[in-house]
Design goal:
Elements: H1 2-8, H2 15-49, H3 52-101, H4 104-109, H5 112-119, H6 121-154, H7 160-203, H8 205-210, H9 214-239, H10 242-266, H11 272-313, E1 334-341, E2 352-359, E3 364-369, H12 375-380, E4 390-395, E5 398-399, H13 405-411, E6 412-415, H14 426-430, H15 439-448, H16 452-455, H17 475-487, E7 493-497, H18 505-515, E8 522-526, H19 530-533, E9 538-543, E10 546-551, H20 553-559, H21 561-570, E11 571-572, E12 579-580
Parallel strand pairs: 3-8, 3-9, 6-7, 7-8
Antiparallel strand pairs: 1-2, 1-4, 4-5, 9-10, 11-12
Helix pairs in contact: 1-11, 2-3, 2-6, 2-11, 3-6, 5-6, 5-7, 6-11, 7-9, 7-10, 7-11, 10-11, 15-17, 20-21
């Protein structure tokens, strides 16, 4: 229940609507509970004495109570809807803001599909708990206590039926709730799996069609779809027992009341009107108990969603901000001092081990190595996307953990291995690097990244709409736009993580030439092609997460076997620069 208490704290901005809805439910109950008492007089006085004016008066009062109950019910629905949807909006916003605060290691803990489910389906469950649960949660106890009290006033002996039937129904409902709780958790997990499969299939739809794997994907989707179906069937099969159990207990209670009430009428200790009113109160009391059981079922499902939402909201960012952060990075000097890094504790061998490396400010450094040699991992420690497990990473002569995160990442521009553009125009995407950049600055960055040559051919130029994920530009064009976006930051450290793999060698050479015009910027280039790094001031070869060799192109070509093998496999001819195959 702590999870529910934590999540429902987000109802505070809507507390006025909640208070109004609760008050309206209470007033509605008073009007409804008045009707059976009016019915008693109608039967025992009006019908018995054939007093038509009295019957019309009592009937009019009953109709008035019913109309007032209807009006208060409609007003409740209005305020409850405002509270529920405001509550849902607050929860989604809180989760989204929290995810924006996550670091890479936090995101490693949650799959994308799970986060989507937690911000949509789970929030909808909590929202429905308010719209469907608030009324019975308030109404049921009021109706229960008022109904029992009024029936006790009518006939204390006959009200004993309540004290037998209510506990039986309560025990049965408690049993069902304890069985259904774990099933709701299983159901939400199955929703995660289904969303994950849909997301992956839609993201990779071109690869699926290219490899003619549609049938395989259909089978994979069918498995997760059946998993969700099975979990839902098991859950609602148990939840469906709620209604028949209630009906058995309720109708048994009605039969007992009719039996004993009839005997009381025969001996003259009870009137027909009192029995009629008593039966009305019985139905209201039993219905309130039924509503309470439904609320518990609803809260049981909400509990699973509340726990999943709370996991996101209470997740602490893995990287702590320093108490007195440095707000300026003086230069692009970089040092790795005995750095070891692993993605999670207890995961065996670290991704990086014993890294000692110094990169002067303004230098151009190439990093090469085989697949899985941790090239990307190494550069991700510079803008503090991850923290080193052991050792120290310094930028500008200071430990990266001493900088304000935003200031550090503004000073370190990184073009990630996976190029990503957002929906909107090219201008909107480029301004991620500098929101205040004018057209001249945008075109300058595009010329440096060799993006101007295809932008000038587009009718709308910078105002060209890219579509979702930049689907209407090629891979090489997307890479060049991402480079231009990063150049607009005017960083002190510029990192290219295999960011020119989709462009031809001539275009790549022009980009490298443009980068040489940035003398005060430290440039780190991760590449698979020798031509991308051979002119660098320093080349670092990584092997299995360790530094294998460091040197210039000529040094490594003369003494390092790995570099010689890479060179021989990619180049032909014997001159200093060679030619790409």
């Amino acid at each position: 229940m702590k999870d529910l208490k934590y999540i429902f704290a987000y109802l505070r901005p809507c507390r006025r609507q909640v208070a109004a809805a609760v008050g309206l439910v209470f007033i509605e109950c008073i009007f409804e509970m008045s009707i059976p008492m009016l019915m008693t007089g109608l039967v025992d006085v009006g019908v018995a004495n054939r007093d038509v004016p009295y019957m019309l008066g009592q009937g009019g009062k009953m109709v008035l109570c019913a109309l007032l109950a209807l009006v208060t019910g409609l007003l409740y629905a209005r305020y409850a809807a405002r509270a529920a949807y405001g509550f849902g909006a607050e929860l989604r916003l809180a989760e989204y803001r929290k995810v924006q605060e996550f670091d890479f290691s936090n995101l490693d803990r949650f799959s994308t599909s799970s986060l989507v489910t937690r911000m949509t389906t789970d929030v909808t469950v909590m929202q429905n708990a308010v719209t469907s649960g608030l009324r019975p949660l308030v109404r049921s106890p009021v109706m229960l206590f008022m109904g029992v009290g009024m029936s006790f006033l009518l006939n204390p002996s006959l009200s004993v039926v309540f004290f037998v039937a209510a506990p039986v129904l309560g025990i049965a409902m408690a049993f069902l709730v304890t069985r259904i709780g774990p099933l709701y958790v299983r159901q939400q997990t199955a929703v995660d799996h289904l969303n994950g499969r849909i997301q992956e299939s839609l993201t990779a739809i071109r690869a699926i069609k290219a490899f003619v794997r549609g049938e395989h994907e259909d089978e994979a989707f069918d498995r997760v779809n059946r998993e969700l179906t099975g979990a839902s069937v098991d859950t609602f099969r148990h939840a469906a027992l709620n209604q028949p159990v209630f009906q058995v207990v309720m109708y048994t209670a009605v039969v007992c009341i009719m039996w004993f009430g009839g005997r009381f009428i025969l001996v003259g200790s009870m009137t027909v009107g009192e029995l009629t009113a008593f039966l009305s109160y019985v139905l209201q009391v039993m219905n309130s108990v039924m509503m309470i059981s439904n609320v518990f079922l609803l809260l049981t499902r909400s509990l699973a969603s509340a726990h999943r939402i709370r996991e996101v909201l209470e997740e602490r960012p893995a990287l702590d901000e320093p108490e007195a952060p440095l707000m300026t990075v003086p230069d692009g000097r970089i040092q790795f001092r005995d750095v070891t890094f692993r993605y999670a504790e207890g995961t065996g061998r670290p991704a990086l081990s014993d890294i000692d490396l110094t990169i002067p400010a303004g230098a151009t450094v190439g990093i090469i190595g085989g697949t899985g040699s941790a090239k990307t991992t190494l550069v991700q420690l510079i803008p503090r996307l991850y923290d080193a497990t052991q050792g120290t990473v310094l930028v500008g002569g200071q430990d990266v953990r001493r900088y304000d995160l935003a200031a550090l990442r503004d000073a370190v521009g990184i073009v990630l291995q996976k190029n990503l553009l957002f929906s909107g125009t090219i201008r909107d995407n480029l301004r991620w690097g500098n929101p205040d950049a004018d057209d001249e600055a945008l075109w300058t960055a595009c010329r440096q990244a060799c993006a101007d040559e295809f932008l000038e051919r587009m009718p709308a130029g910078l105002d060209t709409d890219l579509g979702q994920g930049g689907v209407n530009v090629s891979g090489g064009q997307k890479q060049r736009l991402c480079i231009a976006r990063t150049l607009l930051k005017h960083p002190k450290v510029l990192i290219f993580d295999d960011s020119t793999s989709a462009v031809d060698t001539a275009t790549e050479a022009r980009i490298r030439k443009a980068l040489t015009a940035l003398p005060d910027v430290t440039k780190i280039i991760i590449a698979q092609r020798i031509t991308s790094v051979m002119e660098a001031d320093m080349i670092v070869i990584l092997k299995d997460g360790t530094i294998h060799a460091v040197g210039t192109h000529q040094d490594l070509l003369a003494r390092d076997e790995i570099y010689q093998e890479i060179y021989a496999s990619q180049m032909k001819g014997g001159d200093g620069h060679g030619q790409a195959l």
